[in-house]
Amino acid sequence: MTEQIDWNDEVARIRDLRASRARVGPGSRPAVVVVDFQKAFTEHEHIGPGTAVALAHTAELLRAARAAGVPVIYLVMILDSLDDRMLAQRVRSSLTERCERGDPWTDISPAVAPEPSDHIVEKTVASGFYNTRLHDLLQELGVDEVVMTGTSTSGCVRATVVDAAYRDYRVSIVEECCDDFRALSGEVSLWDMQDRFGDVVSKRWMLDRLASIAADREQEAVAR
């Protein structure tokens, strides 16, 4: 008889593993990437209370990033035709059905509204790097680290993290600023990303880091 897995124990185990896993470490020139915090993915019928919490945490992080002069980049799912979607999403029902250009569902959530100085990159699949200008933009900005926020943790966030790691960016995933209405998938993906691709960090740690960057920037301005 196959031994039954206690999933509560398994989640506790991977959280312990995630906390003890060796860190890659941050870069020196970060950018904050906001993945798919659009109405289609933040106001749909399956969201839980965690979505609003993640949006609020992200809004706080974005204010700190802008104050530190750290670039903010929004990834948005925009389709000129629903036929542009990958096969699985054309076959199965998917929230991407609400992502056709001009549909109000594609609007970025007002809880994390972009500022004029921010950058917006359109995409058509989960990864923000696939057939987009994201890599070129990061290179133009001199970025060596992506600070990841957004939804869903197990889908578009993870896909973008994987592709960032493949391009040798340092990756910091801010736990409180990521959302997944598939709770178990989100938890497992945080462990997977910490294990293989980057560092899962707390919002407090990242806010302190951004405050330090802002202070350094202010000192440099005074020195000039």
TrEMBL record:
Residues covered by the Isochorismatase-like domain: 31-202
SUPFAM superfamilies in alphabetical order: Isochorismatase-like hydrolases
Gene3D superfamilies: Isochorismatase-like (3.40.50.850)
Source superkingdom: Bacteria
GO MF entry, a single one: hydrolase activity
Protein name (database record): Isochorismatase family protein
Entry keyword set: Hydrolase
